[in-house]
């Protein structure tokens, strides 16, 4: 048996995770069996989107998006339900605390990542990314803002009709290798890359993917979809030596054969579509399959595996790099009984195994954290890959 056939026989149709969740944060249900999220205490969540486990200590950081705040658990596996740290709010849940943007407010925070000794947060509707150079230990202001001149500014593209290397429009995803910073600048349909750790407010990016220049913000660069264009890039991850971009608006993932592509580079592989031109939900088919996606909003990796939150299909999919080719079928699944089903909570009542519009995902050691956004909860599960 050749090696590719052996991989097929070993990994086709695996479950991504072991049977039972190890922890669930949030997700309380009312008497009707529906989520009860509208509270401002430290244990409730409302449509969380982004999350990360910090590699320095395993702490859990998540964007509690509907409450316009970031929560941090220093020991997420301890059984403690209340977050240790709250950023962006005091006791409320209003956008920018019901006032104007400042260093201590958030407005629809989305992606979050470890960035060196600290964290970076995509403060999406303030059109900025906030950077804490060290992990917050209390409610404290960030050190650096990108996309705006200062912490009190919050206009898309700084109020201009075009983009620039130092502006942002609805940034959704952030990624860091400890020095370089990558931002999925969703409303400008591009990915920006800083070659060195940003050190000043409003610092311009060095590289760009998805557009032919820093000023253009058209969907797919003003043309049809291609291997180098984007429409609503939403999340980023490294997959061994590759950079991957969840291009949610084109219902696909772009895979670059480098962690640091040159500006305007073409992706080498496309997952979720059969070619670089098709951009329809589930490839234009009536239902889902192992080769299709519908609005993938989250992405992470685990060794040889790429894991994608196929959000509108309410499932996670995983690809093995032994089968990396454009249009390849996923080899593992979570959230549905098979690759053809795609109902929210599998069209059943919410339960500990179900998913409803999963967004952010992040792998730490052999555990995955899942922002199960439609169920207003975060799940920690052990990987079975």
From TrEMBL:
Keywords: Repeat. The keyword Cytoplasm does not apply. Gene3D superfamilies: TolB, C-terminal domain (2.120.10.30). This is NHL repeat-containing protein. The keyword Ribonucleoprotein does not apply. It comes from the Bacteria. It comes from Zhongshania arctica. It holds the Pfam family NHL.
């Amino acid at each position: 048996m050749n090696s590719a056939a052996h991989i097929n026989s070993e990994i086709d149709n695996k479950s991504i995770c072991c049977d039972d969740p190890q922890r669930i944060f949030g997700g309380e249900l009312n008497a009707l069996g529906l989520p009860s999220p509208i509270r401002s205490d430290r244990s409730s969540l409302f449509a969380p989107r982004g999350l990360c486990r910090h590699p320095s200590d395993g702490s859990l950081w998540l964007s509690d998006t509907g409450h316009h705040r970031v929560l941090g658990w220093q020991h997420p596996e301890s059984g403690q339900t209340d977050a240790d740290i709250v950023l962006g709010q005091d006791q409320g849940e209003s956008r920018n605390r019901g006032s104007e943007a400042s260093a201590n407010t958030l407005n629809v925070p989305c992606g979050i990542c470890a960035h060196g000794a600290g964290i970076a947060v995509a403060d999406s509707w303030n059109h900025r990314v906030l950077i804490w150079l060290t992990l917050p230990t209390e409610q404290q202001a960030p050190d650096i803002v990108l996309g705006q001149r200062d912490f009190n500014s919050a206009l898309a593209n700084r109020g201009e009709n075009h983009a620039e290397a130092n502006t942002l429009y609805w940034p959704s995803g952030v990624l860091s290798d400890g020095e370089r910073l990558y931002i999925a600048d969703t409303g400008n349909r591009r990915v920006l890359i800083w070659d060195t750790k940003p050190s000043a407010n409003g610092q311009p990016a060095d590289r760009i993917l998805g557009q032919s220049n820093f000023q253009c913000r058209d969907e797919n660069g003003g043309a049809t979809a291609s291997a180098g264009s984007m429409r609503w890039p939403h999340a980023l991850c490294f997959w061994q030596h590759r950079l991957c971009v969840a291009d949610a608006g084109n219902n696909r993932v772009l895979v670059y054969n480098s962690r640091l592509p040159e500006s305007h580079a073409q992706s080498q592989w496309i997952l979720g579509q059969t070619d670089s031109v098709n951009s329809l939900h589930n490839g234009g088919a009536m239902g889902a399959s192992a080769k299709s996606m519908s609005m993938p909003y989250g992405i992470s990796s685990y060794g040889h595996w790429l894991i994608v939150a196929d959000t509108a299909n309410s499932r996670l999919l995983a690809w093995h790099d032994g089968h990396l080719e454009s249009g390849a079928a996923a080899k593992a699944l979570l959230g549905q009984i098979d690759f053809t089903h795609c109902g929210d909570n599998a069209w059943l009542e919410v339960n500990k195994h179900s998913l409803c519009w999963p967004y952010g995902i992040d792998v730490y050691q052999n555990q995955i954290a899942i922002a199960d956004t439609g169920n207003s909860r975060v799940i920690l599960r052990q990987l079975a890959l």
